[in-house]
């Protein structure tokens, strides 16, 4: 049987079927086929069914198209093509492991069971032998779209869960675990690159009074507004997190003691500058800040830095609040004796 004529006959039937609904954004599809007759037939069908079609003639072009940033996520690949065959394209797509998923339907004249197994093993999701029935192709593409939609939903859920697990829902800041993780990451990086790291612990002053006088919701509004102000004066790569109720941590990569004090002053001023609108009431809010830091951090300094910024914060509170205190040794960042890995690093970088 001549596959071309068989499909051409089917095409006529398919073209009489209902076209895709208008007003819906067409779904992108890649079709790779080297035979010009099949190619034009496939294009006609796919366009008729409402797809936004990218047509290519060989496997290399197909791989290049699927590698693109905004590549179609639905693909029909001919098995036998010049350059790279369909299964090879499948293997590359799967090896790249990109998200979102690419759903691949292999099209081939091969009918042996072991070919089917090879195609699926190469990473194809589905398989259709030529001559194929256009209704069947159309239905199988719909099945592929269902899989893609499910996967998209899964990715969205995963993203939402990740956001929930790492961020504080009231302020949108990193939560306690995540900001501590950010601190550890920065320490590791600073240790490798022999750069300083500083840490601010920020605590709102007499915050309990705001709750007691104006209610918990006003307190929440102040927490959000204080967050916005802190964010507005910190750099994009500074990690800001909610450490506890009205306590925040700001990780300052590549900031030595002097720079950290300046940064802390900016945060303090931003929080104190002008009244906070807390759901109808206008409130003056201030904060106190404790600063700690290392000029040459070691990997295990996180706990000590938190402890030291907390001690400095405690002093800021006892000195009357609305002020910045730097932990005794932090201003110079000089007092600590480097540990062995650091010495080795220093010697290597001097060599
Ligand atoms: P200080 O100046 O010494 O820091 O005094 P303070 O009142 O700010 O400190 P204290 O630790 O006594 O009170 C903190 C308050 O923060 C108590 C708690 O009810 C409140 N708080 C903690 N988390 C939240 C929250 O998510 N929303 C609101 N509205 N209040 C919170
Ligand atoms: Mg071919
Ligand atoms: Mg407080
Ligand atoms: Mg507190």
Overview of this protein structure:
With 351 residues, this protein is α/β, with parallel strands linked by helices. The chain has 2 domains: 162 residues, 3-Layer(aba) Sandwich (Rossmann fold); 173 residues, Alpha-Beta Plaits (2-Layer Sandwich). 51% of the residues lie in helices and 18% in strands. The chain is built from 12 helices and 12 strands. The chain has a 5-stranded parallel sheet, with helices on both faces. Strands 7-8-6-11-12 form a 5-stranded mixed sheet. A two-stranded antiparallel ribbon has the order 9-10. The radius of gyration is 31 Å and the shape is elongated. The protein starts with a helix and ends with a helix. 36% of the residues are buried. The N terminus and C terminus are likely disordered. The structure holds 3'-deoxy-guanosine-5'-triphosphate and magnesium ion (MG) (3 copies). One magnesium ion binds next to strand 6.
């Amino acid at each position: 049987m001549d596959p071309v004529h068989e499909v051409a006959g089917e095409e006529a039937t398919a073209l009489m079927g209902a076209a895709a609904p208008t007003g819906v954004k067409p779904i992108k599809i890649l079709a790779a086929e080297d035979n010009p007759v099949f190619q034009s037939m496939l294009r006609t069908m796919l366009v008729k069914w409402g797809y936004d079609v990218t047509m290519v003639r060989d496997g290399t072009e197909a791989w290049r198209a699927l590698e693109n940033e905004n590549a179609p996520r639905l693909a029909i690949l001919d098995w036998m093509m010049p350059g790279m065959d369909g299964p090879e394209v499948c293997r590359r797509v799967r090896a790249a492991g990109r998200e979102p998923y690419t759903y691949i339907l292999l099209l081939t004249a091969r009918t042996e069971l072991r070919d089917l197994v090879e195609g699926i093993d190469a990473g194809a999701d589905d398989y259709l032998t030529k001559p194929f029935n256009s209704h069947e192709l159309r239905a199988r593409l719909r099945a592929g779209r269902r899989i893609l939609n499910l996967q998209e939903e899964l990715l969205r859920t995963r993203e939402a869960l990740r956001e929930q697990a790492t961020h504080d829902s009231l302020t949108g800041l990193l939560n306690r675990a995540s900001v501590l993780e950010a601190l550890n990451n920065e320490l590791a990086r600073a240790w490798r690159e022999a750069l300083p790291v500083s840490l601010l612990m920020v605590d709102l002053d007499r915050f309990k009074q705001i709750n007691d006088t104006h209610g918990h919701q006003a307190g929440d509004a102040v927490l959000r507004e204080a967050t916005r102000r802190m964010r507005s004066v910190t750099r994009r790569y500074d990690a800001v997190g909610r450490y506890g109720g009205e306590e925040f941590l700001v990780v300052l990569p590549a900031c030595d003691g002097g720079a950290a004090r300046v940064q802390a002053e900016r945060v303090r001023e931003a929080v104190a500058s002008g009244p906070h609108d807390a759901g109808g009431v206008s409130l003056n809010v201030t904060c106190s800040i404790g600063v700690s830091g290392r000029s040459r951090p070691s990997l295990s300094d996180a706990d000590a830095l938190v402890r030291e910024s907390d001690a400095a914060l405690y002093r800021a509170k006892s000195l009357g609040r609305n002020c910045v205190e730097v932990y005794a040794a932090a201003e110079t960042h000089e007092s600590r004796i480097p540990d062995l890995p650091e010495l080795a690093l220093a010697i290597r970088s001097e060599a």
